[in-house]
Amino acid sequence: MQLPYILKTPAVAIIGESCYSSLIENLDYRDVPCIKYAISKGLGLGIVAGGAIVKVPQIIKIVQARSAKGVSVSSYMLETLACVISLAYNVRQNNPISTYGETFFVTIQNMIILGLMLHYSGKNTSAFVILSSFLFMGNLLGRTSQFTQADGSIITTALVSQGALAFLQAATIPINLFSKVPQIIENYQNGSTGQLSAFTVFNYFAGSLARVYTTLTEVDDIIILSGFLLSTLFNCILALQMALYWNSSSHPSKTKLGEKSDGSSLGGSSETKKRVKKLD
């Protein structure tokens, strides 16, 4: 089967010439390796597309409530830090955008959410300093310069060495995991997920599951796989909390034993007791 050029070009770019010939032209659906690879590529592109909107509901929810109650600032700080490092690392590695595109979108959305959280807390100066620091850090880690020598060879230099950046990339695994802990604790203490977006939580869980599959299929790296497996576990805990506290806004206010929330006695007045006896 032959696809029109306008469809063939992106298909070949996504799954490669050999798998395109096998699956599209020859309709060989017994080619299991190519089927797995095509599924992995499809999931990867889906994750990138989902990453472009995954935090939008969270942004809308905060703006509508004019509050970020129940959303952990420290969680977003740690997650944004990990995203900035990963984004710079992938850019420096010249990796395909399909393998890290969601990181770019999530970074931008996280910075918007952090700005809103601090703004609604009356900390506009802190918001400016923190967001500027993240932008400066990303520029510092990702920037490279190229020089052409007399013999025509090109030398690439950077303020942060590739080795140091690789170390920081490895450090994003525990950073990403610990970024979930404050939010999990806050949900537990509040007995509620507050302004946390269900769409964002469940999509993060689904995305991390999908990344486990794409890593197993396309990347032979136990460190990256371990990071996604652990991330899936923590995202699963958040998803379970979201389901558990679905109809809970907060813990009910505690009152003294034997009293109602308005301060009146649960036992009632003697007048009420007499009426009950008459009814009996």
From TrEMBL:
TM helices/strands, residue ranges: 97-118, 125-142, 154-175, 196-216, 222-246
InterPro entries: MannP-dilichol_defect-1, PQ-loop_rpt
Compartments, as annotated in UniProt: Membrane
Keywords linked to the UniProt accession: Membrane, Repeat, Transmembrane, Transmembrane helix, Transport
Bilayer disposition of the protein: Multi-pass membrane protein
Family indicated by similarity: Belongs to the MPDU1 (TC 2.A.43.3) family.
Protein name: Mannose-P-dolichol utilization defect 1 protein homolog
